[in-house]
Amino acid sequence: MTHPPDVICLGILVTDVLARPVERFPERGKLVLVDRMEMHIGGCAANTGIGLSKLGVPTGVMGKVGRDGFGDFVLETLQQHKVDTRGVGRDRTAATSGTMVLIHDDGERSFIHQIGANATLQETELELDLLQGAKLLHVAGAFLMPGFDGAPMASVLRRAKSQGLTTALDTAWDSSGQWMDLIGEALPHVDYFLPSYEEARELAGCDEPREIAQRFLGLGVQVVALKLGEQGCLVTTADAEVRVPIFPVKAIDATGAGDSFVAGFLAGVLRGWQVERCARLGNAVGACCVQAIGTTTGIRSFEETVEQFNV
């Protein structure tokens, strides 16, 4: 790294094995052929970190992998994309997290996931000195880090705020069903909250996007950027609300689209843009992402993205 990171993405790191197209599971003991099978980096912290780096933002990643081939792959891929990996630890016993991603003909995905080393991440292991000099801490993948979710996450976000950093938070699906009980303590220390609609609905306990956003604002979040899939996004602050539609493109693989949106949105935040333009950039980066297989393959440079989508 020639430049210290402006952004630290703290969260889950995964190796994805993608297969396409998968329209049915094989019968027990049988085999189904697919056209393509590839290995890609995944996990919210890696996806958003690489996205930011491709957009020209000096970025570091903080998290944990195993001492295995998948872990080697994660570190090598991050480094190839000029992401600072000094904050990535290696667990001696837990395997690197992995996901089998089954991509359907229309680009929708189904997943088989192993949490692996992400489950063992502890606050005490984090190289928090790396926050010195950074501008923004993004916690990526809440609910998939059982050793860090809850009070430890709130503690780290509080520390980042006390050091003058902007903070951001993205969630995954909470299979434990704890939802707000687990994340509520962290929200007062979050400037930008960027959940998907499905996760936000479970957290807020209501269905209407505007009502959901207001619930989070009431809990201390400064800006809520609600990812609404094909409906684009809804960005809400204390005194503004804006819906931004998607850019229509042919989707090949939606894997990583949400993390790409976050990368674009945060790249706009770091440039001091108004939230509507941040959302437009987020949607543009997401549109680039879904046009290629893999979580970050389709993401282009900041200049190319802004020019193509007239952001």
Please write out the topology.
Elements: E1 7-11, E2 14-20, E3 36-42, H1 44-54, E4 59-66, H2 69-80, E5 84-91, E6 97-103, E7 109-114, E8 136-142, H3 151-162, E9 166-171, H4 180-183, E10 192-193, H5 197-204, H6 209-218, E11 223-227, E12 233-236, E13 241-244, H7 257-270, H8 275-289, H9 302-309
Parallel strand pairs: 1-4, 1-8, 2-6, 4-5, 8-9, 9-10, 10-11
Antiparallel strand pairs: 2-3, 6-7, 11-12, 12-13
Helix pairs in contact: 1-7, 5-6, 7-8
Any overview of this molecule?
- By secondary structure, the protein is an alpha/beta fold.
- The chain has one domain (7-12, 43-94, 117-309): Ribokinase (UDP-N-acetylmuramoyl-L-alanine:D-glutamate ligase, 3-Layer(aba) Sandwich).
- 30% of the residues lie in helices and 24% in strands.
- The chain is built from nine helices and 13 strands.
- It has helices spanning 44-54, 69-80, 151-162, 180-183, 197-204, 209-218, 257-270, 275-289, 302-309, and strands at 7-11, 14-20, 36-42, 59-66, 84-91, 97-103, 109-114, 136-142, 166-171, 192-193, 223-227, 233-236, 241-244.
- Strands 5-4-1-8-9-10-11-12-13 form a nine-stranded mixed sheet, with helices on both faces. The chain has a four-stranded mixed sheet with strand order 3-2-6-7.
- Helix 1 packs across helix 7, helix 5 (197-204) crosses helix 6 (209-218) and helix 7 (257-270) runs antiparallel to helix 8 (275-289).
- It is globular, with a radius of gyration of 18 Å.
- The protein starts with 6 loop residues before the first strand and ends with a helix.
- The mean pLDDT is 94.
Separation, N- and C-terminal Cα atoms: 29 Å
Basic shape: globular
Q: How many domains, in number, for the residues?
A: 1
CATH class: Alpha Beta
**What is the name of the CATH topology?**
UDP-N-acetylmuramoyl-L-alanine:D-glutamate ligase
Strand order of the largest sheet: 5-4-1-8-9-10-11-12-13
* Radius of gyration, in angstroms, nearest whole number: 18 Å
For the residues shown, what is the average pLDDT? 94
Total beta strand runs: 13
The CATH superfamily label reads Ribokinase
Query: Architecture, according to CATH?
Result: 3-Layer(aba) Sandwich
- Spell the H/E element sequence: EEEHEHEEEEHEHEHHEEEHHH
pLDDT < 50 runs, ≥5 residues: none
The percent range for helix content is 25-40%
